[in-house]
Amino acid sequence: MTPLVEVQDLHKSFSVGGPLSRERGRIRAIDGVSFEIAQGEVLGLVGESGSGKTTVGRTVLRLNEPDSGSIRFDGRDITHMSRRALRPLRPRMQLVFQDPFASLNPRMRVERILSAPLAIHQPGMSRTQRRTRVEEALSLVGLFPSAADRYPHEFSGGQRQRIGIARALILHPALLVADEPVSALDVSVQAQVVNLLLDLRERLDLGILFIAHDLAVVAVIADRIAVMYLGRIVELAPTANLFLSPRHPYTEALFSAVPQLDSADRRARIILSGELPSPLAPPSGCAFRNRCRYALPACADGVPALRKVGAAHWTACIRDDVELAPALRVDAA
């Protein structure tokens, strides 16, 4: 079956330097990323701040222009597709933003916010038809139709995020890129929004790229998880496999940072030495080697390729001889 999204060897860099100054270098935000998302699948994308997660999501949607590589959506190559040719596909690829307040115009009522995509992509609809679609979208995310007549500041943070999700769904997309959609919400509200996304995935057969830094949240919603470090995917596996048997030291370190409520489950935190290397001048070989407690001199010889080490399990580490500690609370996975 053709994947909904297929990304191969994607690269994206940004120039460093002001508009009137010479270029001082380029930041390699995405450095050879490859993955697939099937229809109805949730792929979690995790990593530290600055690892390139958001840039991946925006580049897949062609909000950023890729430097090289390929992006296929529903079997069509959209890597270098013109804006005119891409326009009919835009309704099927939608973005849910991180900040549910900043992404909503405070001067617009909810009806106008949700109607804007319809006015752009389906200009022939009457006002009555648009109102009907707005009310349907609000009901889909658990809000009353009367919410259409209110302003964003009249809602809680969780309700505003539901409005953002409704806006993304109003054009009936096949793919959602959810960029840290719950990080700005209270913990109890996070669970509600995650459950909503799971319900929508089942009802609408959505493919979702779920970008987050919270492994506990990603474990609940994702079918597979890709771990990013300095612009590269260093591990990719089904969620349960990743939690039970991580194969990259960076993944092990991320697991050790997850808080454990049960004192019996607590273990020593893996403290990564040094700061995240600069993407302007990444280390030679494995980019994680300067912070890795398992590093060998051979880790500097070349960039390790993402290779298969198990059923649907891939890693970019040469240390097959090291047994890494799993996540202690695997029930969520």
By DSSP, the count of extended strands is: 12
- Tell me the span between the first and last alpha carbons: 26 Å
**CATH H level, superfamily name:** P-loop containing nucleotide triphosphate hydrolases
Shape: globular
Biggest β-sheet: strands ordered side by side in the sheet = 6-7-8-3-9-10-12-11
Task: Compute the number of helices.
Answer: 9
The helix-and-strand class reads alpha/beta
Record the SSE blueprint:
Blueprint: E1 5-16, E2 25-37, E3 42-46, H1 53-60, E4 68-73, E5 76-77, H2 83-86, E6 93-96, H3 110-121, H4 127-140, H5 157-169, E7 175-179, H6 187-204, E8 207-211, H7 215-221, E9 224-229, E10 232-238, H8 239-244, H9 249-256, E11 307-310, E12 313-315
Parallel strand pairs: 3-8, 3-9, 6-7, 7-8
Antiparallel strand pairs: 1-2, 1-4, 4-5, 9-10, 10-12, 11-12
Helix pairs in contact: 3-4, 4-5, 5-6
Question: What labels would you give this structure?
Answer:
333 residues; alpha/beta; Rossmann fold; eight-stranded mixed beta sheet; four-stranded antiparallel beta sheet; 9 helices; disordered C terminus
Explain this structure.
Mean pLDDT is 90; it is low at 329-333. The protein is α/β, with parallel strands linked by helices. The chain is globular. It is 27% helix and 22% strand. The chain has helices spanning 53-60, 83-86, 110-121, 127-140, 157-169, 187-204, 215-221, 239-244, 249-256, and strands at 5-16, 25-37, 42-46, 68-73, 76-77, 93-96, 175-179, 207-211, 224-229, 232-238, 307-310, 313-315. It has one domain (5-103, 173-315): P-loop containing nucleotide triphosphate hydrolases (Rossmann fold), CATH 3.40.50. The strands form two sheets. It has an eight-stranded mixed β-sheet, with helices on both faces. A four-stranded antiparallel β-sheet has the order 2-1-4-5. It is built from nine helices and twelve strands.
